[in-house]
Amino acid sequence: MFQAHGYAAHDKHSHLVPFSFERRAPGLNDVVIEILYSGVCHSDLHQARDDWGGSIYPMVPGHEIIGRVTQVGSGVHKFKVGDLAGVGCLVDSCRHCSACEEDLEQYCENGLTVTYNGRERDTGAPTYGGYSDIIVVDEHFVVKVSDKLDLKAVAPLLCAGITTYSPLRHWKVGPGQKVGVIGLGGLGHMGVKFAKAMGATVVMITTSPAKGQDAQRLGADDVLLSTDPDAMKAHANSFDFLLNTVPVPHDINPYLALLRRDRTMAMVGVLTELDPPPNGVSLILGRKSVAGSAIGGLKETQEMMDFCAEHNIVSDVEMIAIQDINQAYERLVRNDVKYRFVIDMASLKEPS
Amino acid sequence: MFQAHGYAAHDKHSHLVPFSFERRAPGLNDVVIEILYSGVCHSDLHQARDDWGGSIYPMVPGHEIIGRVTQVGSGVHKFKVGDLAGVGCLVDSCRHCSACEEDLEQYCENGLTVTYNGRERDTGAPTYGGYSDIIVVDEHFVVKVSDKLDLKAVAPLLCAGITTYSPLRHWKVGPGQKVGVIGLGGLGHMGVKFAKAMGATVVMITTSPAKGQDAQRLGADDVLLSTDPDAMKAHANSFDFLLNTVPVPHDINPYLALLRRDRTMAMVGVLTELDPPPNGVSLILGRKSVAGSAIGGLKETQEMMDFCAEHNIVSDVEMIAIQDINQAYERLVRNDVKYRFVIDMASLKEPS
User: Fold this and answer.
1) Cis peptide leading into A126, omega within 30 of 0?
2) What is the distance between the alpha carbons of residues B291 and B286, in angstroms, rounded to a whole number?
3) Membrane-spanning residues where (chains A, B) (predicted)?
């Protein structure tokens, strides 16, 4: 066992505070990772505050983890001590269902084991995430990380990155296509970078002129203000794919009108009702689809990490110390970050 | 010009009454069809009563038309006098947009011309439908009809038939697949027959045990009562395709739970809001899709007619005289028909 240190929420109303806990001793296939950086996902806040119900306390959030391997089990093949390593939203799955066998562990039919606020498959012990100094994970659920990239800005790739990369790949985004990314936040800013790197013509679709300008800096070819009815009309029936990263309920009918016939809008942000409801006619006239997509499997996450190394893609981040996490959550609520907070875990060793 | 006779609604509150009007003289590519049978689609009722707005009066409804060719223009190639002929929901389109060029006239980007309650592209004159004795249509929008089938039961294929056949083909339904047809009415009963003939294992999903029994008579392999939570749970994540024919707003989340990963539910019935709204998680967990589909193009409609002749598929119909149309509408409102009313247009010549 390892004595680990991190920050935890102890109930839905409390701030995160220092917390000591145990990590398991590494098994045959486990790697032990000293955590260097941990991204702050909006879902950390939702789960710490039990917005979705079922939260397990104490909770150590964090599923955008970058670190260095300090120890490996005797059966580990992919990693050696000193390697850089990444851990995302899942740390285990059943490994034998059709989803797991197709490298789509995120859709494990027997329930995946999430990196925090979940339970270990064998012991039922709670899982603790990346707002900590050390983590022990089966090597299958750990990805290799290139040393060519700015490491602190790599962390958000493990959730915000793969959540946008995977649907862009699944719906075969590429050259000659016009792709819209709806909403510019942690997910949307990665969507713009990936869609552009895949060769598409990228349009940032936003309600905010300021965000539109920023999107062009990030690589967007054009900006469409969804609040401008004339502009929305001018872009009607013209998009080959829409990546909808908006994290709150909103009217998707105006976006469906932007799609070409037989095309898809993939939802990756809204985990609640699509309210106001879409209209049947928005789908029927043009044989359009609304789909969902969840993070990505381990094979694809590694593919994304390699793609990022090749194309020099990282997140735009704002670094914080772990002591600033509660203040960062308040800023997240106000959507006041460009575009991802990342915790420098070295700060854990500083006096609080 | 032809003097035509039919039944028309004169305003949203009135019953349909006898109505005389003019049909155009046949142009180069037109066929003149003596109408034998006209199916009664639920949308006839909605448009006669202006439920969707924009109705044009007087309105002669009817877009499930079977008849015999009595005259052809000099440029007509497909038909000769005496041939059987079918006309469905559209009688014209722009003929040059990408949809028209791909034989998907139903998605014409410049607006298709519907068989009734529309306007002719050249003159702007109102289009009048099948509740009449004669119709003049460009041969491109007329399909050939086999004399092997029971003609009166063929009429509903032109709308209820193609509306269900097209999505089953588009999403490649076939042997080895488990397909659910949701809702047993004019559309649903055709969906069951087609999916079965295409080789799928067909499950009728209904709220009504009596309809479930009837579905098995129509060819369904199994029945799933959507009101039975245990049964719904037993079928979770097991369907390769769902054809949702329910014509009124309803909660689609329980149906999305039935789909396997990466599969689609196609909506063909609801032309209003999908209320209560679907949940983002219903789509995201399993990368599922909700799509829409509208009728079919002329090429596919002909393919369906040929498929029906080959597989001996027609609708289950209840014959009425045109004089019974208002009473039939009342029964439609109560969903009291198995499964399609068809008007014997010979009744037009009887004293009312």
Assistant:
1) no
2) 15
3) none
CATH superfamily of B161-292: NAD(P)-binding Rossmann-like Domain (3.40.50.720)
Q: Is A287 on the interface with B (CB under 8 A)?
A: yes
If you count them, how many residues does chain B have?
Answer: 352
Of A104, A279, A287, the CB nearest to B294: A287
A93, A289, A295, A300: best to mutate for the B interface, most B CBs within 10 A: A289
CA nearest neighbour of B30 among B146, B133, B139, B140: B139
Kindly give, in sequence order, each residue whose CB lies less than 8 Å from that of residue B182, ignoring residues fewer than 6 positions away. B188, B205, B206, B226, B242, B243, B244, B245, B246, B255
**ipTM of this model?**
0.96
pLDDT per position as a tens digit, A185-239: 999 999 999 999 999 999 999 999 999 999 999 999 999 999 999 999 999 999 9
> Cβ contacts (< 8 Å) between A281 and chain B: which residues?
271-272, 292
Q: Which two tokens stand for residue B65?
A: 């038309």
Taking the domain B2-159+316-349, which CATH number applies? Answer: 3.90.180.10
Place of tokens 């588009």: B170
A284–B267 CB contact, under 8 Å: yes
Cβ neighbours of residue B294 under 8 Å, at least 6 residues apart? A284, A285, A287, B106, B107, B163, B268
